[in-house]
């Protein structure tokens, strides 16, 4: 019912910035919370940030102060602005759309590599 496509990933030097985008299509009206997760090889997927329809955002301790999540409901798009990137931020970043506790949708992911 909902399709998510991430974009904006790539290679960036430590201290650099990157902005990820997640475009939603389909039955977008059913989406409540939008979130960004990330997963490094051999590690569990972890929550980076999430945002409500009204724009209230929360962040992981790692992301707080460096990352900013935002959404444009008219464009059905959620963004993740990442500043002061570190090597530990290297991961595949996934977009997640949540309808309720039992129904969620995931994107394919976009690779972010932070390296000099």
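^ structure tokens above, recovered residues below v
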């Amino acid at each position: 019912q909902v399709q998510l496509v991430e974009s904006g990933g790539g290679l960036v030097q430590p201290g650099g910035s990157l902005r990820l985008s997640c475009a939603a299509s389909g039955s977008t009206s059913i989406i409540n919370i939008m979130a960004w997760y990330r997963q490094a090889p051999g590690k569990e997927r972890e929550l980076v940030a999430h945002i409500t329809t009204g724009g209230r955002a929360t962040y992981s301790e790692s992301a707080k102060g460096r990352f900013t999540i935002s959404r444009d409901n008219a464009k059905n798009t959620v963004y993740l602005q990442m500043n002061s990137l570190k090597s530990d931020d290297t991961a595949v970043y996934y977009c997640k759309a949540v309808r309720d506790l039992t129904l969620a949708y995931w994107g394919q992911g976009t690779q972010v590599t932070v390296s000099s």
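The chain has no helices and eleven strands.
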